[in-house]
Design a protein that fits this description.
Blueprint (H helix, E strand, L loop, with lengths): L4 E8 L3 H12 L5 E4 L5 E2 L2 E2 L8 E5 H9 L3 H5 L2 E4 L1 E6 L5 E5 L9 E5 H13 L4 E4 L6 E5 L2 E5 L4 E9 L6 H5 L4 E17 L6 E7 L2 E8 L3 E9 H9 L2 H12 L7 E4 L3 E10 L3 E2 L2 E3 L5 E2 L7 H16 L8 H30 L3 H16 L1 H11 L7
Parallel strand pairs: 1-2, 1-13, 2-10, 7-15, 13-21
Antiparallel strand pairs: 3-4, 5-9, 6-9, 7-8, 11-12, 12-13, 14-17, 14-18, 14-19, 15-16, 16-17, 19-22, 20-21
Bound molecules: flavin-adenine dinucleotide.
GO molecular function: 2-octaprenyl-6-methoxyphenol hydroxylase activity; FAD binding
Pathway: Cofactor biosynthesis; ubiquinone biosynthesis
Protein name: Oxygenase
Amino acid sequence: MSTPSHSPVIIVGGGMAGLALALLLRHHGQPGVTLIEAVTLADNGDPLTPSFDARSTALSAGSLNILERLGLVAPLLAQAAAIDIVDVSRRGRLGHARMVAAEEKLPRLGAVVENRWLGRVLLDAAAADQGIEVIAPMQVQSVRRLTSGYQVALPDRELTCDLLVAADGAHSRVREWLGIPAHHDDTGHDALIANIGLSRPHQGIAWERFLDTGPLALLPLTGERMALVWTGTRAHIDRLAALPQDAFLDALHDAFGEDRLGAFTHMGERQRYPLVLTHASAQAVPHAVVVGNAAHSLHPVAGQGFNLTLRDLALLAHTLGGINAPGDLSVLNRYVTARTADQALVSQASRWVPELFRVRFGPFAHTRQLGLVALDLWPGLRSAFAARAMGLAHGQ
Ligand SMILES: Cc1cc2nc3c(=O)[nH]c(=O)nc-3n(C[C@H](O)[C@H](O)[C@H](O)COP(=O)(O)OP(=O)(O)OC[C@H]3O[C@@H](n4cnc5c(N)ncnc54)[C@H](O)[C@@H]3O)c2cc1C
């Protein structure tokens, strides 16, 4: 085999996390980034990797601020729906909390973009950047530690790098090769997603409804459509997935329990995702870092997974900006330490909020209702909560 070619940074995984990191690193002056993805990235511009499937992503205002630095907000918003209001409630109980963009003095609380469009925008930006070399479809065979970096073996050649990034998803092979164990917590629940047609406009309201069976979210999309994320036990989701379309829309109307959206008129393809929460036991070792779903995958209850990842990646790229040795563990540890509190808070919250809302009786049920009422009545508390949920809190 010929002499390995060298790249300062190699990212394995061309999903949301890998692509976003490549663009952020370049924005912060990294001279060269190589991105290796296992599957064909796109066909006629349409992304094909698993990140960019039929789902939609609620991007927080903080994520939009990060993407703005890359010049991606205008193309994203060309096919995204603004979130002007977030409404959180528990079906069959008093009290709900509303966050309103105008009250938070924000143009919008966030925006919802279909993953296929998000993928297209990220891929177009990566293709336009001469400093990003994309190798796909390509399977990494193995990685080997060198004194000052890693050697990455592909079927037809070898590459070396100062910094190796594992962005290859929850079942990351790279994380395994780095010797970093991960904890996988199977919640026994699935998320079912589909796009739903409405009989009247959604008015930019994102609904988060806590049912006895688990949370249900309806997020505004372009046109009179909403993105549904319905979570419940696998048996419950089996039943919902098997329903004919009309029966499914009736079941959704009953579960949502409000008439404010009018009738649900039609729906797109249903897809489901097992809710297995992954947590890597370390995110940095000498010359390597683990990001995105490979580092932490969350319950989609509040749509925080990619938002949390973007905050991670923005700080990682900022920390490495202008540094000649991006693999230096003390530098990587500085990044990991600075991200610990936000990561812990968001992953704990997305783990416990669905549980808390499932409790029907006893002190928790009461506290939860008080919490929702307090949030609705006390603007200061609501603003603090909104700032954190929108990724705008201090230090994020
Ligand atoms: C139902 C649902 C709804 C969600 N909604 C939201 C939301 O509204 N807002 C939000 O912020 N987040 C949301 N999320 C979370 C978000 O989808 C994840 O944070 C995001 O997909 C993580 O992307 P990733 O690139 O880390 O991983 P992945 O999407 O898993 O991508 C990993 C990539 O690595 C590639 N790969 C794997 N192995 C190899 C290999 N050996 N070599 C090369 N490449 C490899 C894969 O092909 C893939 O392209 C949601 C998640 C779910 C399940």
